[in-house]
Sequence to fold (186 residues):
Amino acid sequence: MSDGTNGNDGGTVVALWHSAAELAAELGISRRTLYRRVKAGRIAKQEVGGRTLYRPVTGDGTRGSDDRVPSVALSVSGDTSDTPFVTPVTPDLSPLVALTERLAAQVAALEREKAEALALGHRALDERDVLAAELSDAFGALRLANGSVRTLQEALEGVLDDVAAVAASPSAVLVRRRLRAVLAGC
Fold:
């Protein structure tokens, strides 16, 4: 590859490093924008044989693409006699895969805990509602019993008044009839 355009088999090879004018034209940006991107680290710059060459660091460099996130790690050949070529390097993603799997397991465990807590909360609410209904029934029964006690108390007070009145009277037969009548009414 002497000129960066033809490979050993005679096929065309796309050059990855360009002059500032070529890369600016390829990306559809001005040279001033190209230099700004070099300063921002979005375009790589290399001195080769007295020439300055440029290439996008990542992405395709077009508008709307995210040039800040690398898609493939690249290494530049040490041969500076020609236009340098780039050798793709595959990054080791196993630590990221392991971290993703570990985080997914943690998320699943948290989701299970959340579901259990919600179920426990719903059971507590249901039990609260049942207890509230039972308490309401108990208070109703207590009010009814309290009313019955008052009625009995009033009836007994009336009987005691009658007994006191009869005890003062000479006729005991009248007392027995009066007591029977009162007890029959209860």
Observations:
- Residues 163 and 175 are 7 Å apart (CA to CA).
- Residues 1-14, 61-75 have pLDDT under 50 and may be disordered.
